[in-house]
Amino acid sequence: MTDKSTISREQLADTFRQFIDPAFVISDDETMRPYECDGLAMYREQPMLVVLPETVAHVQRVMCICHEHNIPVVARGAGTGLCAGAMPHKDGVVLSLARFDRILEIDPLARTARLQPGVRNLAISEEAAQYGLYYGPDPSSQIACSIGGNVAENAGGVHCLKYGLTVHNILSVEMITAEGDRVTLGSDGLDSGGMDLLALITGSEGLLGVVTEVKVKLLPKPEVAQVIIAGFDSIEKAGDAVGGIISHGIIPGGLEMMDSHAIIATDDFCHAGYPREAKALLLCEVDGTEEEVQQHISEAEAVFRKLGATSIRTSQSEEERALLWKGRKSAFPAVGRISPDYYCMDGTIPRRHLARVLLEMEKMSEESGLRVANVFHAGDGNLHPLILFDANVPGELESAEAFGSRILELCVEVGGCITGEHGVGVEKIRQMAVQFNDNELQQFHDIKAAFDPTGMLNPGKGVPTLRFCQEYRSIEHKQHKHEQVDASHG
Amino acid sequence: MADQIQQLQEQVLQARSNGQALNIVGGGTKSFMGRPASPDAGTLSLTGHTGIVEYHPVELVLTVRAGTPLKDIETALAEHGQCLHFEPPRFGDGSTIGGILACNLSGPARPWSGSVRDQVLGVRLLNGKGEHLRFGGQVLKNVAGYDVSRLQAGAMGTLGVITEISLKVMPKPATTVTLMQDMALDEVIHYMNQRAGEPKPITGACWVDGKVYLRLAGAHSAVEATAEKWSGEVMAQGDQFWQQVRDQQHDFFKDSAAPLWRFSVGSAAAMPALEGPWLLDWAGAQRWYRGEATLSDLEPLARAAGGQVSLFRGGDRTGEVMHAQPEPLKTIQRRVKNSFDPDGLFNPGRLYSWL
């Protein structure tokens, strides 16, 4: 309980059990354990209570009760998030939406799907496939992650350059406000009058409301997709090839890059037949009509050849396409095999700075003594450096975190941002002070207060307090400056 | 090409200390939209705050000052074979990019290419305290902080003075073909939605005066092959047709003095029972209606079609012109407004009488 809360754990649990099946009001430590963290397990906290309501009316009642007693609420989807955004508050309630797992309606003519928030991302496309439709955003966790969580994080995936993020692919959400009102943001239309609160909610990490229903757009499944893998003997050349494709006027469905560490690790893991000697590998998927794909594939091959590709292979069947993607898609487990632990970062940079950023990252890697493998959504500039470490070696976790911080700050320095799709949560809250100044952060706090005047929704996440920022900037940053000066002197 | 941020900031601070509201004006081509500008407010003009700040064609990102005219932007993009693929309408020569974002205006390609709201990556704005703030950025993927940039789309300048905008730009399609055929209104919604559900390079679906118009755009081979498969006659003046629909220069918009209503509804929803001239765009998701009516009469029809209605042009603009908001959302929007503009300086009453 916070200072102002007026109810004990058992009293609160009893209150919930009056309208929610007691099996779904969890207050014992053992059963609460799986809720201690999300996909970023290095941050953990035990909540006061976990509750799994079954109806929207119950969610609304839970919110009203928590509001009345000033109890923090942390909404939780599938728990696959990578920024500790769903980490519990020790005095608060974890509100799991896991039981809201039904696809309520698919309208094939209008190309929309109405979903409960706990529906898995991939389940949408699986259900829509019978109509020749699919849902665009495809985060790596799509087998498990839920659409409600996707809204909270504005999830992306490998097809964002062409098909957009969650914010581009939803029509409306129903949500319960901090004060317990049930409201709909957006509509079946492509826009609504007034302020775009739907955009504001998307990516707001559970700080502004609890989403209880989502209506998404569905896209017609492309007739054909083919993928080219092109190896290069330097990162610079691969980077130029990305620019070359886009300058040529082709917008690939997916455009991914891996560095040599990632190539070897993924090829060992799933034998995709990647060019193991390459310093960088591009995966370029072209989709569309048969005629279009044929035309663009031959043009893309020519561009890669001209820009110095050392190897080119184009998928000739769906099986081959799946195999070539398999390596990229299993990058995380593949790296997990070569290191006891890894820490996945998520900065975005303007692509023209790629070579500089990777070079500086290599320097940081040498300085910290930790290896780093890079997978990169090259089309949209979203980097996922995987820092390899061993949590059992004293100090390595801290080194990995410090290394990660430096990478994110470098992303800001070159004009990018600290998180492309994983969110801020607890993990990147310190770097928010590097990305934004105090006035900007204050504006975020004021927006939060407009939705949640008492600050009960996911407190302590997303936006740092100004006092914290000032301390962080003065201490941590000074240290970095010194390190940089030392390095340049050395 | 000039950076007038300092003057703009001073004007805001001055207005704040005088307690005087400000009407934010770009090219002044959209003064007919929203509720009337407050006669007691001063004017804050963005027309001198112009110029491209950064443009990297390979990054597909453009950063411009908000007062930059659309035509200057399009000229710069065309040099690199690129365009604003949300097809911003222009209701006059001086149309600026800031006004397009504030009014959230997008053209016929909107269901396929996204809206200006979809393509905005970052903004800088002056809030009501005169602070010059930066949100979002110049990269396509960015989830740091709340999405203040997209919040500006449609807020009609009520939250701050947008001073700079970063946008995603795209390559111009290599080929465009427009197919036209006769079709009755009661068949066309099904037809347009069915076509939009096919994996073909469609970028426009419009119906007016008993004819349906479909636009195909993209790789030459794909456009040609689809045009052969689909029915309809290839239109010689296709581009001109879409431009007239985009800019409201088509006869439908010019012929009558009756108020123009905009229905933003489910694309496949049945037509509202409302006799009168209609123009359907966005495969049915944007429907224009001309006729004498009141907002409160039309709202239930729009709701039944899953969406909203607004009085776009003409008619009585002293009442509300936007679809009514439920009380909890009114409260939140008032508080959001207050968080940006605590003294209520910017465009008072322009969006809603209560904001």
From TrEMBL, chain A:
Pfam family, one: FAD-oxidase_C
SUPFAM superfamilies assigned to the protein according to its UniProt record, in alphabetical order: FAD-binding/transporter-associated domain-like (SSF56176), FAD-linked oxidases, C-terminal domain (SSF55103)
Keyword Oxidoreductase belongs to the record: yes
Cofactor annotation: FAD
Record-linked InterPro entries: FAD-bd_oxidored_4_C (IPR004113), FAD-bd_PCMH (IPR016166), FAD-bd_PCMH-like_sf (IPR036318), FAD-bd_PCMH_sub1 (IPR016167), FAD-bd_PCMH_sub2 (IPR016169), FAD-linked_Oxase-like_C (IPR016164), FAD-linked_OxidoTrans_Type4 (IPR051914), Oxid_FAD_bind_N (IPR006094)
PANTHER family reported for this sequence: GLYCOLATE OXIDASE SUBUNIT GLCD (PTHR42934)
Name the UniProt record assigns to this protein: FAD-binding oxidoreductase
Organism: Marinobacter halophilus
TrEMBL record, chain B:
Protein origin, superkingdom: Bacteria
InterPro entries linked to this entry: FAD-bd_PCMH, FAD-bd_PCMH-like_sf, FAD-bd_PCMH_sub2, FAD-linked_Oxase-like_C, Oxid_FAD_bind_N
UniProt entry keywords in alphabetical sequence: FAD, Flavoprotein
Pfam families (UniProt xref): FAD_binding_4
Flavoprotein found in the keyword field: yes
The keyword DNA repair is assigned to this record: no
Molecular function as annotated in GO: catalytic activity; FAD binding
FAD-binding PCMH-type domain residues: 1-172
Gene3D superfamilies: 3.30.465.10
Protein name: Glycolate oxidase subunit GlcE
Species of provenance: Marinobacter halophilus
Record lineage: Bacteria, Pseudomonadati, Pseudomonadota, Gammaproteobacteria, Pseudomonadales
